[in-house]
Catalase (Phycicoccus elongatus Lp2), 712 residues
Amino acid sequence: MPPKSKPDKPTQATPSTSSTPGTQRTKATDRRGNADELHQGAARGGPVMTTAQGAPLADDQNSLRIGDRGPTALEDFVLREKIFHFDHERIPERVVHARGYGAHGYLETLEAIPELTRAAIFQRRGIRTEAFVRFSTVAGNLGSPDLARDVRGFAVKLYTPEGNWDIVGNNIPVFFIQDAMKFPDLVHSVKEEQDRGWPQAASAHDTFWDFISLMPEATHMVLWTMSDRAIPRSLRFMEGFGVHTFRFVNASGEATFVKFHWKPRQGMQSVVWDEAVKINGADPDFHRRDLWNAIQAGDFPQWDLAVQVFDDEFADSFDFDVLDPTKLIPEEVLPVRVIARLTLDRVVENVFSETEQAAFCTQNIVPGVDFSNDPLLQGRNFSYLDTQLKRLGSTNFTQLPVNAPRCPVAHFQRDGHMQMSLQSGRANYEPNSFTGDQRGPRPDLDGGFRSAQVPENGDKRRIRAESFADHYSQARQFFRSQTPVEQEHITDAFVFELGKCEIPAIRTRMLANLRNVDESLASAVADGLGMPLPSASPAAVAPREDLPASPALSMLDGRATTFAGRKLGILVTDGTDPQVLDAVTTAFENGGATVELIGPAIGGVKLGRRGGRRAVDHALDGAPSVLFDAVALLPSAGGAAELAQRKSAKDFVNDAFAHHKFIGVGSAASDLLAAAGVEADDGMVAVGDSDDAAAFLELCQALRHWARDVQP
Ligand code: HDE
């Protein structure tokens, strides 16, 4: 029975004056206007909510009804407008890189390089250029988990005084394919299989490995995606790469080749696979939360923009074709040169308006930058512009605040869906005699964009250059440049991924390809799969043995590490010693780390030694140790005995141990360690009193205790 309505007065909802629900901005610079007006309106007792047309609302709770319990009137424009807009809230997600997270910041030029490029932002040291960066995974849908094994997109939009320059890169310096023609095939193979609709955000399935095993050119990149680079601990702790060879062009029109690198000043760090799987369950938003938290806490992530610059002579003498995006130039062969620093210092205000509507286009370059003939890059230059129209629905997407250049724009592109600018004047064509000085492009050499003058000729053919034919040598070089720990992780990843392939022939074909990379890798993967090793697949060019290891390709080899920017989780209970707790907290916070407390329940704990109550950040059941970079176990004796009975507490310790984390062990934690079946090793340090905190922090600076021998 429907409840009887009250006979007298229908309820009138009074909108709260503290909310400003209709606040909207149309210009990036219009940061406060509307909100202030609404607040002032509210203060004057005026309306706080309006329709999209601006009509003040008296009731946002109830639709317009005929009688108390009667039908809704079609006349209810308030309801219709609200539902109409809601019905159309979603736009198509990106066909790849759907899951992403963005932040604002700036690029500061550290070195003027006018001899290389005439780009305005590199003419003087100290120039600051506004930037927007969007990180992403590739294969997963918008709602997929952050810790999928995948490449990460690293797309940077620089709002320069000469227009927007987008460096749409990845966290891996090479790509799966050499020609844009194969991109739809690659993406189809990795996305959910079309007849069943799974798996989501995973390359561990038949169609992906079918395609990869049939495309030897993908081998180099899959070595990278099977490495820990594909499961970064944080978006802040990964490198970025422009991948393709681009060109710099100076004021005299002289061109050089250039490759772009982003070097994280926070250092590099990844998680292990078992940890990634568990993070995806415990916090699918792990990466976006981490970035948001860091920026909100004022711990602004930074990357150095570094370049590898080279001329035709180097390109001709280099072992591989610099136009082949499945190849890199080792830093030991051609060192990187730092020219600028990127800082991310502001989170977005609205994820849809900014991150979702951000439209990166590889074709967005500025005077002083140009493309090379890399066939993948050339194809991308079509795809990105095209895809924005599909996704954002109008050629006028460049007018959205996140996409709008910060410099003046002047052109005769007119009309189109959602034209936001008032295109005044009589003439909308060029040349014309109405617009005076602004009548056309700048004729002078210094001002306007000019393509690098490069002679081109040749027969028109569909062909893959011979110089692109070596598919295995750099894959081998990458594998051999990894530390044993990293090699083991790569092997485990291949075993896991190929183990998910149902069709044995696909696994066999991949093993045959891996024999061309490294015999020890191929046989370890075959062992892991419990399959015989097939003969090596025929290679178009025999893989080279003579490429020297490149330590720069490893994440662990000789890299300086720090615990700054990382997170310590401290397990506390009633009775925890406040002095030790405070000493550890202070030491880590002074070292630039974040400290979070985990208690048996979210209500907090009552510390020992008259320490009083202490709030905790997490309840144990919701905060597995995978969410932290290191853990400290500081329960009281009674607390430890109770935790020893709880599976979540034993898992907390077990996982921290299994994931090679450093563990600070309080004087009363032994019951818990014993219950978890964990034995002390060099990766554990006693934190029995306050003096131990510094030693614990020092240990944690190595990030992981790789020497710990644990089975995956
Ligand atoms: Fe992309 N890629 N891509 N890609 N890509 C897109 O553009 C494409 C490639 C990369 O945060 C799409 O706006 C083709 C290489 C990033 O918004 C689409 C080819 C690299 C992002 C597209 C490639 C990338 C994208 C999907 C081969 C690293 C996310 C939605 C010829 C250097 C940007 C969109 C963001 C997004 C096409 C290959 C990086 C469809 C055709 C190589 C970081 O246009």
